[in-house]
Design goal:
The protein has about 300 residues and is of the alpha+beta class. The protein is built from 9 helices and 13 strands. Helix 1 runs antiparallel to helix 3 and helix 6 runs parallel beside helix 7. The longest helix has 15 residues.
Length: about 300
């Protein structure tokens, strides 16, 4: 039995795209936690040792190889040269310490800081605390960007799903004029997903991701950064309109949610015509998300 389970685990890792999304979006649900299938290998190893099964031990090489192929590259750190450092953080509209949160983000010494769930009066406190180090900022709706470099051309990006009738503004685009050239920076907060008895409820998230993907595809500037709470992992096919067009982190898992026990990175840093090298989490703030910071090399 452990040998059979090992083969099935390897199959799920390699052929997860074959799991259909038509019923309960089971494919996306699996992909959200795909790295954690590696834990199944540990359980199967214990079973194989208890049963003293040489066949099972050999079969375990399949899921180990599959996991290493998919996620081995994310292990370790990167200390090579980079051009810019960015921070992405959903600060939470229930955060009781916006000043402390802002100071913690400044401590990472990024060039750009993207924030989501900005609500008054906390917004004013973020702006005041960050202004000393980040003199340029733009806010549209509940998302904002603070920068060490001048920002121009800020505008709203409409990523609102049709089913949402109320006021809803969670996307912006601006241009950062850095020493390395002009960069179109998008900040977005896609709709939340829910795990229910019927499966993963992600239709609104998927629709919003599609709208954002079209906006980025139409972007005329060559270099593009996307920073945001995308409510999905880079393995989730629901984010394919974005991950098919942009580079994701080459190093680091950076599980960012929930902050109390992070199991998935749904806070993302992506880039076009640039390389996202290493991504990592920062210390907890007053949010239910952990901040993530990434080093980006242009070109």
């Amino acid at each position: 039995m452990p040998a059979v389970l090992a083969v099935l685990t390897a199959g799920l890792m390699v052929f997860h795209r074959a799991v259909p999304n038509s019923v309960g979006r089971l494919g996306s649900l699996l992909e959200a936690f795909l790295p954690w299938l590696g834990l199944a290998v540990v359980v199967l190893l214990v079973l194989a040792l208890l049963r003293r099964s040489a066949t099972a031990l050999v079969a375990l090489l399949l899921p180990v190889a599959a996991w290493t192929h998919l996620f081995g590259g994310l292990l370790g750190t990167e200390h090579g040269p980079h051009d810019l450092v960015v921070v992405q953080h959903n600060v939470s509209d229930e955060n009781t310490d916006p000043v402390g949160t802002a100071r913690a983000l400044v401590g990472a010494e990024p060039d750009l800081i993207a924030l989501e769930e900005l609500e008054p009066p906390a917004l004013a406190m973020y702006a005041q605390t960050l202004a000393v180090n980040y003199p340029y900022h733009v806010v549209r709706g509940t998302v904002g960007l603070w920068s060490k470099h001048p920002l121009t051309g800020a505008r709203l990006v409409d990523i609102k799903p049709q089913q949402i009738a109320e006021t809803w503004s969670r996307g912006l685009r601006t241009v950062a004029h850095t020493p390395h050239g002009d960069i179109a920076v998008y900040v977005a907060h896609l709709p939340s997903v829910r795990v229910r008895a019927s499966g993963l409820a992600s239709s609104r998230r998927d629709e919003s991701a599609n709208l954002l993907g079209k906006a980025i595809a139409a972007e005329k500037l060559k270099t593009v950064f996307l920073l945001g709470d995308l409510n999905g992992t880079v393995d989730d096919r629901g984010l394919a309109p974005l991950t098919s067009r942009m580079n994701t982190a080459e190093r680091g898992f950076a599980f960012s949610f929930p902050a109390a026990f992070p199991v998935a990175r749904i806070d993302q840093v992506m880039a076009r015509s640039a390389t996202v090298g290493h991504i990592r989490t920062l210390s907890p703030t007053g949010s239910d998300h952990l901040p993530v910071t990434a080093r980006i090399t242009l070109g």
